[in-house]
């Protein structure tokens, strides 16, 4: 087995940053009335700016595959071109289509050469699953390098046209706020962008990062669905897929809008996250004292203190001075978030040889968690 290093890192954030006052103009006002849920969600998540693949006229500037391709191209220069990539592995929760696969479309935009590709589906963990596929390929000697990426273009899923048939629900916000809040919640949480890394078996580059290990945990065996799209959630917690509804009901039920069961989210995302973190610590014989930079992907600053408190409660408290976050400035980019966080950490110039970095990436879809432990070389 070979060692695996992150030798190049890139990010791509489309267009200009969008502040809180511009959000509704970009995504569109539903039923001609400003959202009542928007201020509640923004007050809790504390995101100040984010990025959308939408121009000043409201037109789409990039699809998801183009965002991912731009990040992968950002890994390349005259010394390493797209022609040199041996494996392309990408993850997203917002693919542009059901088929072909997301990575097939990214490959199509790169127009480089015949090579192996892998598409990881899911939500935020899909970017980490894409990374692990590349990590295992290089580690096993199957490929000399792998370009791995995470990307999202959720803005197109959050435009007002997607929710037009839900207007009556939104009109009842004061009488039935939980229903409306669950329908609208993610509009004010998610944003667009991409990030990519190049994996190689030698420590090249200015700040190579050795991947010591990667772990994943799923709680789907005991938890019902929390975040979903392309389905309707029944009272018993099961999902009925879009394919089982008549076509005329797809829009009436907003089946292709992303939805979040916020009750399940608040009750479980932190407990399961710390439970799995504790397991990965025990598996590898490490603890918070063995981490110099802790990169948790949190969807909202609402969860920041709660995560700290839960870790303290379970005896694995992570000191605040080890946390590295960028949510306020770039928003929640789902599968791309951890890539963009790492790129900003490396670009900060703070890292020194021997530093240890821990990724902690949760996915609320049905409660999955991914971890990676890196050493600065």
Structure notes:
- It holds the Pfam family ACP_syn_III_C.
- Residues 282-359 form the Beta-ketoacyl-[acyl-carrier-protein] synthase III C-terminal domain.
- This protein is an alpha+beta fold and 377 residues long.
- Helix content is 32%, strand content 21%.
- The chain has two domains: 5-207, 3-Layer(aba) Sandwich (Peroxisomal Thiolase, Chain A, domain 1); 212-376, Peroxisomal Thiolase, Chain A, domain 1 (3-Layer(aba) Sandwich).
- It has a nine-stranded mixed sheet, with helices on both faces. A two-stranded antiparallel sheet has the order 2-3.
- β14 and β15 form a beta hairpin.
- It is globular, with a radius of gyration of 20 Å.
| End-to-end separation | 19 Å
Strand count, sense and barrel status of the largest sheet are: 9 strands, mixed
The CATH architecture designation of the largest domain is 3-Layer(aba) Sandwich
- Helical/strand content category: alpha+beta
**Outline:** globular
Helix content: 25-40%
Within CATH, the superfamily of the largest domain carries the name Thiolase/Chalcone synthase
Number of helices: 13
**Quick one: CATH class of the largest domain?**
Alpha Beta
Cross-sheet strand order for the largest sheet? 5-4-6-7-1-8-15-14-13
The radius of gyration computed from the alpha-carbon positions, rounded to a whole number of angstroms, is 20 Å
Report strand %. 15-25%
Pfam families: ACP_syn_III_C
InterPro entries: ACP_syn_III_C, Thiolase-like
GO molecular function: acyltransferase activity
Domain Beta-ketoacyl-[acyl-carrier-protein] synthase III C-terminal: 282-359
